[in-house]
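Posting this for the archive.
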Amino acid sequence: MLAPLTDFDWTTLHARYRTKCKRFNSVSECLRELIPLPLKNSEDLDLYYQLAGRFCLEKGSPSGISVATYKAMLYWKLYSIGMGVAEGHCREIAKNPTETEETLTEVCRFIPEQLSRSVNDVRNLVLALDKFPLRGMKSKCTFPVRTVFLHFVYPETVPIFDRMVLQAVGYTKEAAKKAIYKESVLLQYIEHIWSLEKRYLHLLPQNARETPLRLVEMALWVNR
């Protein structure tokens, strides 16, 4: 995998990221239960920060991650696809929210409080989500959504596996579409992101709200 950030201008990261975020709709039905509600003109980053805060507060609570937070997470991950994919999942969840609520509670009781930077540990946890039929990531190959969920739980450890960032590290658009379903590529990507974080740590924006891991992924995303 390539390391394409040698000449990246880190001072422009957040501005460039915002310009890449298309199709964001702050009044999506997936976000209606979010408290506080996103601002009328909010963006991808605003929702990311809200989700990071909500996961931090909820993951250790008796009930675990709330249904409202989970639906907002699905929207954050899937809105760029368009075609109402995120909304479709949220409508299905709305038919039986208690089932999703109970499953989220089970997940939060199952996952460890901390996760080491071991590729095998991350892999095992990603695969262990097979046990929990959560809408949007119950299929065995939904690595992108599963890694988003685990990223919000372990923001310093788990990167987000995404076809856009795969394009940034050397995959063609068509190859990336297939690669996101492959466990071997997931494991390689995790190690690669950790190595890039270490390589560029001294260049990353200071006092950013994101973890260094996330900043590197944002740079890849805009540099694809």
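DSSP finds eleven helices and no strands in the chain. The radius of gyration is 17 Å.
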